[in-house]
Amino acid sequence: MMFASGKLIQADWHTTAEGRDMLSCLFTRNKQGLRTFGLLERPPLSAHIEEVHYKIFVSGKSGVGKTCTVAKLSGHDIPKSHIETAGIQTSTCYWPAKVLDMNKVMLFRLQFWDAGEAASKKFDHIMSACTDRVDAILFLFSITDKVSFDELHQQISRLTSSGDNITKLVIATKCDQHALGEVTRKDIRDFEKTWKIPILKVKNILDNNQSDTNDTVYTMNALCEHLWQRDLILAGKLNKPILLPDSETTKTITSEEFI
Amino acid sequence: MVAYIFCLTTSGGVPVFARSKNGLKQLPFPVIGSLNGVHMFARSHDVELLSTVTDDSKILWKSFHDSLTLIVVSEDDNADDCHLGNVLSHVFDSMVMLLGFDDVTNIKNVERFKKDVRVCFPLIDKFVEDQSLLTFGDLVNAVDVIAAAENAVLQNFLDAFAECADSPYGCLLIHGKIAVATRKWWNLTSRELVLISLLVSSLTSCSSRDIPVFLPDGSPSVPHRLMTFQLTKFIDVCVLCGPKPSLNELEEEVGRFWRTSYESLRAALQNHPCNIPSSFNLDSNILGFIVVNIETNRCLCSVYSSSTTNGDESLDCHERRHILRSYYKHVVGNYFASKVEGSEKIPSSFTHSAMDTYMTTDTYKCYAMLSPPHQIYILYSTDIPTFAMRSITEKTLMILTKDKSTQL
């Protein structure tokens, strides 16, 4: 399900006065990263803003950076070295976005579910808990690990079927480590063509600059947009995925500014 | 201070893992192999090699259930061996807690086990990086608590939530220290209490968790589910459950059960890092203290006294913590017996048992006192007259244990 970003959610809303205002309560004071909210807390935004909840399962080979990616997107501290996750960890984050078809701002509450590979193999309940009533699955691979990329096909077929209503997205991690890259742009283009699933890119390093914030904004918007598209399809408001010619899509995704 | 911990299989000497203190270079395999070799050699001659010292370091070996041998290399602090033995027991128990007793004592495939054991590293590293721990539970084998006036209120919230989770086991952690826990939680053994608190603080922060854990004493072979929920930053509520309820289901209840407690939680959070309410009026010469109740397995510790704020910067908190840890190791095993396994050997050989001990140096003074079931270790500034230490220690213990909010 690929479509040009900006069709359902206003892509540049975060640069408007209203958007900047709302985003400022989501970032820490020094703007280094997103703020975290405990389960009893909610961003200090007007209570009138409608909240929509989503459960997102993060899947991928051990060590690709599932925990780091979730930490990055939800504002938690990014672990310095690889840590095998014990059991399930969930992280909740909030993201406001302007939904175009309703012309209003919605607060997306995303709950990422992350499970360690060893634990999910050893204990049966972990996988089923993660995939139960899931709204979206993020498939992660690391550009420094070709095997993790090759495993995607198998993972996608195992966790989803063509008839389900699960939003599927692929995220390439460790995009700051070009030099060690094992997955080429062509691999990525071919993958997108075969599966019609867009690939987003993240680098889970804490660098306090504007482009980093832009990356987060871009990733979160893309995520929310796909979730919203699914909602519209489920509600019967959108009939079929809007497919675009491949050339245009790849251009959006691999644009230099984002890699 | 621990420098290295190595783990090898007892039968074949296959290295399983090596952890070293941050910044230390890893030891080459031949060195690790030799360290294990001498132990194995002794073993084959029916001799058990326990420990050795070099000019400035100490090495201790310990085998567990004929399955794994752990070796610790540490700076030689002239403390009794029981403390390093305690560290290795914690490391072994950590593996049991996350992998299960059966998998740890009956390793079928070493390569597979090496992979599986990685999940224990954050917890094991807590013992390797012991100098950066903010708590003392690992050292005294009792779990760190935080005292707060709000604890009585929070107890009701916790009991109700645990009941909703259909679990008798529940506890509320503030910065990794127990504020309140259900009655059954306190029935866990001391090592279980210490390990669960450390486990939660060793993990990356997140909103909720569902982790299979084995209780080394209570249920070493059948896993329970440890579920934690972050109510607000640095405050987690934990429950130990069976197969039900699911993480999803229970998380939906968190708001309903805890929302009205929010102000109390924020207020209790203020007691970190002192761990005691500011209303406690302790002697101004006190730089830090450890109080342990060896019956209830709780300890209350602090290195942030009122004088931290008024310009006495002779010792920073990091140094105070380090001195208290060293002093504890100096006293326990040499003069006092405590919860640490093996600490009774030397003290029980004396013709009488010591109830008080103290030490004075140019930069600080320390005093320790036994008052069963309590033990107290206090770090004083040099301003205190040595003759006054005993009565002030007695008085401090009284203040700390008699107050309702400390639950000691």
SSE map:
The complex is a heterodimer of chains A (259) and B (408).
Chain A: H1 17-24, E1 50-60, H2 66-74, E2 88-99, E3 104-115, H3 117-122, H4 124-131, E4 136-142, H5 146-159, E5 167-173, H6 185-195, E6 199-201, H7 210-234, H8 246-253
Parallel strand pairs in A: 1-3, 1-4, 4-5, 5-6
Antiparallel strand pairs in A: 2-3
Chain B: E1 2-9, E2 15-20, H1 29-44, E3 51-53, E4 57-64, E5 68-75, H2 82-99, H3 101-105, H4 110-116, H5 121-128, H6 137-140, E6 143-144, H7 151-164, E7 169-174, E8 177-181, H8 190-202, E9 208-215, E10 219-232, E11 235-241, H9 247-258, H10 262-269, E12 286-293, E13 298-302, H11 317-331, E14 356-360, E15 365-371, E16 374-380, H12 389-402
Parallel strand pairs in B: 6-13
Antiparallel strand pairs in B: 1-2, 1-5, 3-4, 4-5, 7-8, 7-11, 9-10, 10-11, 12-13, 12-16, 14-15, 15-16
Helix pairs in contact in B: 7-9
Give the key terms.
heterodimer; A: 259 residues; alpha/beta; Rossmann fold; 6 strands; B: 408 residues; alpha+beta; Beta-Lactamase; 3 domains; five-stranded antiparallel β-sheet; 33% helix
Inertia-based shape of chain B: globular
Beta strand % of chain A:
15-25%
CATH-defined fold name of chain A? Rossmann fold
Question: How is the biggest beta sheet of chain B arranged?
Answer: 6 strands, mixed
- The name CATH uses for the topology of the largest domain in chain B is Beta-Lactamase
Q: Spans of chain A of 5+ residues with little confidence (pLDDT < 50)?
A: 242-259
CATH architecture of the largest domain in chain B: 2-Layer Sandwich
- Strand order in space, largest sheet of chain B: 6-13-12-16-15-14
Can you identify the CATH class of the largest domain in chain B? Alpha Beta
Overall mean pLDDT of chain A stands at 82
Radius of gyration of chain B: 22 Å
How many strands appear in the DSSP assignment of chain B? 16
Provide the helix percentage of chain B: 25-40%
Principal-axis shape of chain A equals: globular
Indicate the percent of residues in helices of chain A: 25-40%
Annotation field: number of helices of chain B: 12
Instruction: Kindly report the average pLDDT value of chain B.
Output: 93
Query: What is the string of SSEs of chain B from the N terminus onward?
Result: EEHEEEHHHHHEHEEHEEEHHEEHEEEH
Order of helices and strands of chain A: HEHEEHHEHEHEHH
> What is the CA-CA span between the terminal residues of chain B?
28 Å
Structural class of chain A: alpha/beta
